[in-house]
Specification:
3 copies of one chain form a homotrimer. Chain A has 16 helices and 10 strands. By secondary structure, chain A is mainly alpha-helical. Chain A has a two-stranded antiparallel ribbon with strand order 1-2. Chain A has a two-stranded antiparallel sheet with strand order 3-6. In chain A, α5 (120-136) packs parallel to α7 (187-202). The longest helix of chain A has 20 residues, at 139-158. The N and C termini of chain A lie far apart (51 Å). Chains A and B meet through α1, α2, α3, α12 and α14 of A and α10, β4, α12 and α15 of B.
């Protein structure tokens, strides 16, 4: 007798976008079968032994607010000591009088100063400091930002006429020269830093640098290479190359400029970057991004570099933070963000971090990307974009990241600056360094958001038979369960 | 000149459900091109060396019936010595007079007794013993079951009034107390054990315990938490959580109660559990199950715990065994079962076992799940549900499982009782223990079914140039090639 | 306010076959946003350290023509010394008079001779020598082939009547006997070797052996087992088994016979083999091939043996080389070839080679398949079938392959002759051997094509911040970007 086969399209629907609607129905349904009282856990019995593995014991616990604050403060202190905070003249003497031009004015360097100032990594540090200030209430984090914004403002007062000391070849090398304040020379140089300056301004931190940010926004809007469809691209390594990294280099700046100016064109450009880069780089079957795409090859390069994914998910967080509630693109961005979170969640390693190549367990565990993911998970929970269920991974992910902050406050295990390469070996063998500033901002962001998670009164964190669970407190709305079609809020 | 591109939908169809129909056509076609006589293998020649690797030599051979029987008997003997088989009074003395109430009556414990009695793991042991009896013809396996069923029946005669010593908190801890016979307190406690009792009854083994099984079936039908659509759920870790494990905790009991009672509602509920849990947990692209699904998250947790997959595939085997030939749901269940077998077959490890996280080769090799898969493959071949071609993996999988049965008859390398956790590290670092009873029933089942495979006269096992092949004997019908739509039998 | 969700079908389209059309539009569009001058790379700055890992340093560089030529010559010299090049009589004395029959005539063996002659592996060696001659301009490579073709031609002059010393059981074992010249006994014996003979004839190398190749083509066309739909199959391990290997054993011979004869039936059969085998074995979601498919199982065996994939991609290269420009099947074959290249490119290992099981990083790195992939990438770039962007992987892949050619000219790390097995352990533990001739032809091919890549004036190889890029020289047509529908050329 003929029988129906199982209709796999049902699974595909449920695994795809239709599920939220199904679930919303379940979630609000008052009609359930009679339920027995919640039993105590009977799984495992006598043999339900806890693991004694030291790696596991180090990461699998709920961190305390004090632990997190201590880690954040150690990182802040190291950055404070190691990042330029003063202007010097051509002879290397600190400038204290900003009322007149000073020959050879530039930022301090050498000695204990190991990091540059005008770079995308430092832009993330600014954003992380602002978030840490918000999470801890400690003014020192904002002070860090304000001090460096003053350096920039003062530089504009004392430096020679526009045009001097500009460009990558400026004195002091990459980012050390501040000529980029007047004459931006690459998206790397100004994009993420612009977001940092705009967020500082929105938070009322530091001097007004709108002349700088206006110039940078003009650069982003009209000077940065773009494909014919408006997608931001690079001429590196070849003409019209799309880098996942550039989602972060452009989108947060565009989004916060939209907020600050009220001009919808910035939001629209930010949305365009996310969707058009995703169309080229996102693998919906895996839920992760390829690092890049070259005009001369129809296929994305299927190498899933962790930090590239970090840039994307952080960019989407910033856009969702900035985009007004009723914006018709929210649903689009939320759908992509959620699909990405799900893909990333499927790839956490045994030790709580993520691999340098996300889907290659034989690649090393990388700190900066892991911190970005911890931030993105915790932030999305705090905002109500994703289920608090992802909180387990955020909490133990944070513990794993924190274990890489050493006594000095240095962040270990971060992949150094990385080209868009077209082969796996390049990524497998990228060195790591405590001097890679890329790890510091994300660590601040991850700690700040996990701290907010601990303080979030809409969720509760429970321990049951050795497992950590994060769930909504009862009778909360669960917006992440709504069909994306209705998720405009 | 324009050319057609390759239509990938053809591949997708062929890789999907349409293939069996295509193949059935091929298989019955009398028209083939002229064929040369079957040549001897010319692959590799002088360099076609056999592997000298000791792991390979241990697992890659056709096991003998004697080897299997010896392993089964060693496991049986260890279980016989280590599992409660007597009732004792409050003073610890064995009860021999069951004609009147005895204060503090309970099962023996301590000393050589290391396992509990009234648990799901022991339910699987019962099912395994019954299958081993069937495969070997040795009454000792049925005796094991009968002895413990008598303990239960006698407990009901001598124990105090209903309500005493019930619940998880009953004396002797989890499963040691027999109060659950009268007052079930969780699906874990009664579901799989109910299947064991029902199968024993169908096999005519042990006393009539229908009062117990009727109570348990009522509990499963009306007291166990369910979602609004009737899917069985738990309040652990959060309200309305779907565990893959519960497919086994519910479906075999429902299926065999259907068989015993003839009441279709049990079959229908069993089918509903398989399909509705699969809709939430099965990943059709991977062919494997997620461990669980939480109402507060639209996505399944994409962590593919091996034993959760074992519970699912074993539950489907039991349902297909019980479900009448003409039942319209057979095609649905067969399709799911076959897709799952294919997914599992793609993930056998280098050493013949499967990994704790199925798709993570850096997770440890786990015995209980591996034994479940070996059982499911061999059973499906013996039943004609899947191609005998899967027999190679079943045979060497058995050798790998058998290598984990030590001299004492203990099963090594089994993951202890395991929560539904929301992070990978939890699963990576679950300890293993010979005291985890979860490995014993599946090992009995795996050995029994592989023994039946060796005796199966519808298939032949051949060795060719160092490879093992299992194929249908000529002129057999091959029901697994039929389109699922017609696979009602 | 309701918002649109992101339409994932857009991504799927872009990741699928629609992308090339989209890109072609982009590529030819004259309208781009204003672009800043190409900036120097600013990624990473002070921390952008080069890797010091010795494996990386060994493989990640652009090889020189001299390096490649030296490696090729070392392999050629070893093969010249180790492969039969003389006929001997029954007493082992070299035959020099070919004007009359000689009792017991056969090829030399023993001593320094370690390889057989009439085998598919040697067929690939012939093809590789011809390609190396073309790439280097060095006559010694063609001489190697001509010498062995003369051995065959002379054997036909001096050997006894047809029928003697034929078959696998002929004197000297597999391939040592030359009876297969007159009476082919398996596709393995004659298929790839036939391609070698046909390509030699097209290149004007060696004597006319069309009597032999005509016999072999008749065998392939009418005697080799086929399924009802005409797909070439084997009776090993079971009746009507499709081996991916047989794509190479049949398609190049069919394709070059099509070229030589002008008879379209050969092309059509070659196209049929590629498409029908792909329909059974290719996984479009992964972009790679399963090793085999058995009529008694509707599913392919999802074990992705590297060398099986090598046979497929090399067969497609040969077919695309031979198939006339306007043939309506070119688009189909190009689409499959490109999807396969993309799948393979996603799976290169950390060390530049590919794994024995392509998607299992815990399986060993295998030389023969890696060489085949390097060949297929470089050849496709040289022909304009795929983006030059794949050149990075080809170049460092070659370095990795070359590192496995030892001082003697032996190719190390090649998996020995391999059955189609139905379990992963079989493949994991296949031994490797320098006596596995399978590695030699592919190494010649890989080196020859990478040498052509270095000399290819349509592409340029650049180094930028430590990364290797291969790109088209400006204003080149980019046929690989065209929609496959229009890719008839």
């Amino acid at each position: 007798m003929p029988n129906p086969v199982f209709d796999f399209s049902v699974l595909k629907k449920i695994h795809g976008l239709v599920l939220p609607a199904v679930l919303a129905a379940l979630a609000v349904s008052p009609a359930r079968a009679q339920m027995a009282p919640a039993p105590s856990v009977q799984q495992g019995g006598a043999a339900n032994l806890p693991p004694t593995n030291p790696v596991y014991q180090k990461i699998y616990h709920v961190p305390t607010a004090d632990e997190i604050t201590a880690t954040l403060d150690r990182v802040r202190a190291y950055l404070e000591a190691s990042t330029p905070g003063r202007l010097v003249d051509g002879g290397g003497q600190e400038i204290t009088d900003f009322s007149q031009p000073v020959a050879g004015a530039t930022v301090e360097r050498g000695g204990v100063i190991v990091f540059p100032l005008l770079t995308y990594e430092e832009g993330v540090v600014f954003v992380g400091m602002l978030d840490a200030a918000d999470a801890t209430g400690d003014a020192k984090y904002n002070d860090y930002v304000a001090k460096r914004l003053n350096v920039m403002a003062n530089f504009l007062k004392v430096s020679p006429a526009p045009g001097a000391a500009t460009g990558a070849a400026g004195r002091g090398g990459r980012g050390a020269a501040l000529g980029g304040l007047r004459t931006p020379y690459s998206l790397d140089q100004c994009g993420a830093m612009c977001a940092g300056l705009l967020k500082a301004r929105l938070a009322g931190v530091g001097p007004d640098l709108s002349a700088v940010t206006n110039g940078w926004m003009d650069f982003i809007g009209t000077k940065v290479p773009r494909l014919a469809d408006g997608t931001i691209a690079r001429h590196i390594p070849m003409p019209d190359t799309v880098w996942a990294d550039d989602m972060y280099m452009s989108v947060p700046a565009l989004a916060w400029m939209g907020k600050l100016s009220g001009d919808k064109k910035y939001y629209d450009d930010a949305v365009k970057q996310v969707t058009q880069m995703s169309a080229r780089l996102f693998r919906p079957d895996l839920g992760i991004y390829a690092h890049g795409w070259i005009t001369t090859n129809p296929d994305p390069v299927d190498i899933h570099w962790a930090r590239a994914n970090g840039w994307c998910v952080m960019a989407m967080c910033e856009l969702l933070d900035a985009l007004p509630d009723g914006d018709p693109a929210r649903g689009t961005i939320l759908t992509l963000y959620r699909a990405h979170v799900r893909g990333l969640a499927a790839l956490q390693s045994s030790d709580g971090l993520w691999h340098q190549l996300l889907d290659r367990t034989d690649s090393y565990l990388e700190t900066s990307a892991s911190a970005m993911f911890v931030y993105a998970f915790a932030h999305g929970i705090n905002r109500g974009w994703i289920s608090p269920a992802y909180g387990t991974q955020a909490l133990i992910g944070w513990n794993a990241v924190a274990s890489r902050v050493n006594e000095k406050g240095q962040v270990e295990g971060t992949c150094v600056g990385t080209n868009f390469d077209l082969s796996e070996p390049y990524y497998y063998y990228r060195p790591t360094s405590v001097d890679a500033l890329h790890g510091y901002g994300p660590t601040l962001l991850a700690g700040a958001e996990v701290l907010k998670l601990l303080k979030n009164d809409k969720i509760k964190i429970t321990l049951s038979v050795g497992s950590i669970y994060v769930s909504p407190v009862p009778n909360q709305p669960m917006p992440w369960l709504e069909d994306g079609r209705a998720a405009g809020k």
